[in-house]
Write the C-alpha cells for this entry.
Amino acid sequence: MVETTNETVIEVKDFSGYYGQKVGVKDINVGFEKNKITAIIGPSGCGKSTLLRSINRMNDEIPIYKTQGKILFEGQDVYSKDIHLTHFRKKVGMVFQRPTPFPMSIYDNITFGPKLHGIKKKTDLDEIVEKSLRQASLFDEVKDDLKKSAWGLSGGQQQRLCIARALAVDPEVILLDEPTSALDPIATKHIENLVEELVTTYTIIIVTHNLAQAVRISDYMVYMFQGDLVEYGQTSSIVKQPADPRTEEYLTGKVS
Amino acid sequence: MNRDLIISTVFRIISYLAFFVVIAIFATTIIDGMRHFSLDFFIKPPLDGMSSGGIFPAILGSLYILGLTLLIAIPIGLMTGIYLSEYGRNSKLAELILTAITSLAGVPSVVYGLFGLALFSIAFGFRTSILSGSLTLAIMTLPVISSAVQEALSSIPRDIRESAYALGANKTEVIFRVLIPYAKLRILTAILIGGGRAIGETAPVLLTGAIFYSTSMPSSVFDPTMTMPTHIYYITMAYGENAQWMAKGTISVLMIFVLMLYSIAFALRKRMSKIK
C-alpha cells in the first residue's frame, strides 16, 4: 500500500501559530505527500485542528490568531501577500466535523463553488454535479432529488454531500477535520471507504480523534502533543514501533 | 400531601388564564365587529358623519403606511443587523450601536410620534403625510428587525461560514449567498412581527401622518391619509353613539390583519424548527 512518491504537495516549515499569547502549534516541520492519506492525531487541545486549519488559512477569521514560519503549497507560501486566497482555497477543499449543507437544494450546494469561480453554463454545471456526487458515492441515492433541500438528507448523506461540494471545485488537496465524529458507525464506514477511494486522485489530510480510524485508513501519521509535532512517519511503522515515548503512551491508551 | 402537584396545578391555571385573556381579546373584538361587515364597509368611505358607509380609505391608508414603513425599515434593519453580526463583532462601536438599538425598543410610542413630528413633519418639511408617518414607524420597527437579523446571523454555526470560505467565497459572498438564506425564515418572522406592531400603532401616526377624514385617496406619499388605528381613535373620542359601530368594525378588520401577520410568523417559526 505504501509506496514513496516523494512528491510533497504541502510543506510546513518552522511553522508556529498563536492565539494571542497562547501557543496553538509551535515549530512544526512536516511534508504532506501527494496521493496519500496523512492522519493528524493526538489528544484534545494538542493543536491538530490548528495545524489543519492553518493550511488553508481558515484561522484568518480569528483576529487574535498569528502565525510564524511558512506553509508551502506547490512551492508558494500560502501566507505570503502575493497569494490569491480565493484561487488558493479552490485547490484545497475542506470538510468539517458536523455536516454543513447550505440552506439550498442538493444541486445548488454542489454548484455553489463552481459558480463562485465563474462556471455558468448549465450543461457544465450538470456535469460537475453528477461527477462530484458519483465521486462521493452519493449520486444513486439522490439522483431523483437534486432539486430538494439538502437539509432533508441523513447525517451521513449530508457529510458525503459536503465532500461532493468540496470536490466540485476540483481541488488537489482535501482537508478533513474529524469528518466522522458526528456520524454513526455505518455512515462512518461509508466515509472511510470513500476517503480510501478518493486518495487515488487527491491528497488527503485528516484530523481524527479516532486512533483506530487513523490506523485503518492512513498511509502516514503525524502525532501531536501540546502544540508540538512529536512524531511523523508511515502509519504501519509508527504503530509497530513508535520512536517517541509520548507517542507510545498515546497508542497504548495511557493518554487520550 | 404532594407539594409539586399543587404548585404545578397553580402554575397551569395561571398560564391558562393568560391564554384565555389572549383568546378573549381576539375573539370578542373580531367577532363583535364582524357584525358590521358588508361589502360597502370595505369599498366605501365613511358617510353621513360616520353613521354609514365604510372604511376603505383607512384600510388602504394603513396598507400604504405599512408598505412604506417596511420598505424603509427592511433595508436599514438588514444592513444594521449584518454590520453588527458580521463586521462589527468585538468592536466597541458595534456594542454601542447594539445598546442603542435595544434601548430604542423600550421608548414609548408617543415619544416616537413627537420625534417624528419635530424631525420629519417640521424640520424636513414633510408635514403630516404618509412619508412622515412611515419614517416614524420605520424607526420604531428598526430595532425589531435589526436585532433579529443580528441574532439570527450570529447564531449560525461557524462551520457553515467556514465551509463557504473554504470553497473560495469572499466575505460578501458568504453573507449574501449563505448566511442570509440560512437566516431568512427568522428574518422574515421578525419583519412580520414588526409589521404587525407597526400597523396597529396609533400615537406616532396620529402625530405625523393621519387625518381624521378624507373621501379622496392620497395621490402621493406627501399627502396625509386615514389609517385604521387613528380612525378608531377619532371615532371613540370625538363622535356620538351613532358612529361607534364603525369603530367596532374597524377594530375587527385591524385585528384580523394583525392576526394574519402573526399567524404567518408563527407558521414560519414552526417550519423553521422542523428544518433544523
The longest strand of chain B covers residues 46-47.
